[in-house]
Amino acid sequence: MKAVTLTVEDTNRAAPAVPDRNIAMELVRATEAAAIRASSWVGKGRKNDADGAAVDGMRAFLSTVHFDGVVVIGEGEKDNAPMLFNGEHVGDGLGPSCDIAVDPVEGTSLTAAGRPNALSVLAVSDRGSMYDPSAVFYMDKLVAGPEGVGVVDIRNPIAENIRALAKAKRKSVEDIRVAVLDRPRHEKLIAEIREAGAGVHLLLDGDVAGGITAASYDSPVDLCVGIGGSPEGIITACAVKGLGGLIQGVLAPRDDAERQKALDAGHVLDRVLEADDLVRGDNTYFVATGITSGDLVRGVERTSRVIRTESLVLRSASGTVRRVISEHLPAKW
Question: What is the pLDDT of residue 111?
Fold first, then answer.
């Protein structure tokens, strides 16, 4: 038998690829815990109690994750709600160093009123990769799926974007649906969408769900536009990267004082922020668990035997989209 000598190059080529660790599968336990805790307050009109319960659940489970996470976006700052605060360290302090954007209850008003689309969400990326929008609370955003890449642009009139996206998706303009937060500031935008011939999908609260739905495959929503929270923009960007879609944002100061604060922080207010500006690199994770049922996932369901949750888990590096349905025994919980 002829002897065969393998070089180092041959050995490396022959070595099988080893799947790396998907931290999102650990993070989902934290959003599940937050959603279950918040679900006890659904429809009770007490949004801060729901938020506080969710924060406690999320913080407890995040402490078990094998990573060194720092909260860089804690949603509670905007309305003085209970929060995982900016600069808080989470995880066991070992493993990869990460930025964390959290919203234990995305849609506190939805939860308090028992309305659809309330979520518990987490977004994670490499340390130092998330954009800091803390000087400005609001951002004008445009989100679309992969068909919108290179086709729509936040600088274009909405009617032009609708026509371009309809052509790219091989749909009629009349079949295009655009998600918009139902706010007085959007009255003109909503009128322009309808004048263009498209339909409007009004969001009562929480534009993270609207943006992800617009970026998702085979969704009834084609586009999500309008002014919403800047922290939600960063969270949505992490999800959109996992879906291969498009997100653009422009900071939208509420008044002259906030405008000056943004300028002092070095922000260029008319700059269009692309996905790579909002979160750099291709190593993002996004996890959302439903609190109340909506367009994205089902909410927490309590039966006589189990507590059932549904979660969406996205990872940009692999382009993987997972739906995780879990059944929790109340006694063990």
Answer: 96
Greatest CA separation for the chain: 83
What angle, rounded to 10 degrees, do the helices at 47-62 and 24-39 form? Answer: 150
DSSP type of residue 52 = H
Q: Residue 208 and residue 216: Cα distance in Å, rounded? A: 12
State the 10-residue block means of pLDDT for the chain, 333 residues long: 45 48 88 97 95 93 92 65 78 92 93 96 96 90 97 98 98 98 97 98 91 93 96 95 96 94 91 96 95 95 95 94 94 80
CA distance 54 to 9: 51
Determine the Cα–Cα distance for residues 71 and 54; give it in Å rounded to an integer.
16
Quote the CA–CA distance of 256 and 125 in Å, as a whole number. 32
Q: What are phi and psi of 296, to 5 degrees?
A: -95, -50
CB 178 within 8 A of CB 200: yes
Residue 77 CA to residue 45 CA, distance in Å, equals 20
From residue 314, give the alpha-carbon distance in Å to each of 121, 128, 154, 320: 12, 20, 25, 6
Determine which helix (DSSP H) or strand (DSSP E) holds 326, and give its type and residue range: strand 320-328
Tell me which residue has tokens 């934290």: 30
Burial group, residue 4, by CB count within 10 angstroms (0-12, 13-18, 19+): exposed
User: Is 232:105 a contact under the CB 8 Å cutoff?
Assistant: no
The Cα-based distances of 258 to 80, 138, 232 in angstroms read 18, 10, 18
